[in-house]
Design a protein that fits this description.
This protein has one domain: P-loop containing nucleotide triphosphate hydrolases (Rossmann fold, 3-Layer(aba) Sandwich). It is 58% helix and 13% strand. It has seven helices and five strands. It starts with a strand and ends with a helix.
Length: 179
């Protein structure tokens, strides 16, 4: 079984993925990390040097590679992964997709104040511009995110409690599939 975490940048996919990995005792793969390791370069540098189209092709390649692995996995996708190359269809065919829904304002705040402020899409923007950019991304991507098997509204709750709630829903969904 594979669980795919989808949602805006800054929604907490990687953090929740780490917690779910411990909770379910499944391996976690972060799609962006897979690309960085393979390319020997940061996502930011890949975008700058080779462009978004190249990045999206590499993203599709690594997503398909992870889908083919014969083991239980949690895969933290990039924020744009579901919106390109029919990835959301591939994700839903391969396992359970989990949409971590966060308001664009909250995601922008997290991104702007995080150490990863150098994300390609927002690296040189003021906080107000980041909010606007994330709002635009949300509007473009919500149609893909809303195709997820399960959806959870992210708020200010403790990450461990939130991951536990998601983990229970995933296990319940798996049990219902086998009945």
């Amino acid at each position: 079984m594979k669980v795919f975490l989808v949602g805006l940048p800054g929604s907490g996919k990687t953090t929740i993925g780490k917690l779910l990995s411990k909770l379910l005792e499944w391996d976690l793969y972060d799609l962006d990390n897979e690309i960085e390791i393979s390319e020997g370069n940061s996502i930011n540098d890949i975008f700058n040097e080779k462009g978004e189209a190249y990045f999206r092709e590499r993203e599709k390649y690594h997503l398909d590679r992870l889908i083919q692995l014969e083991k239980n996995l949690i895969i933290s996708t990039g924020g744009g992964t579901p919106a390109f190359h029919n990835n959301m269809d591939s994700i839903n065919k391969a396992g359970i997709s989990v949409f971590i829904d966060i308001t664009p304002q909250s995601a922008a705040h997290r991104i702007y104040h995080s150490k990863k402020k150098a994300r390609p899409m927002v690296k040189d923007l003021a906080e107000e511009q980041v909010v606007h950019k994330i709002q635009e991304l949300y509007e473009k991507r919500i149609a893909f995110y809303s195709q997820a098997t399960l959806s959870f509204q992210s708020g200010n709750q403790d990450s461990s409690i939130f991951a536990d709630e998601i983990g229970k829903a995933i296990l319940s969904h798996i049990n219902s599939m086998s009945n």
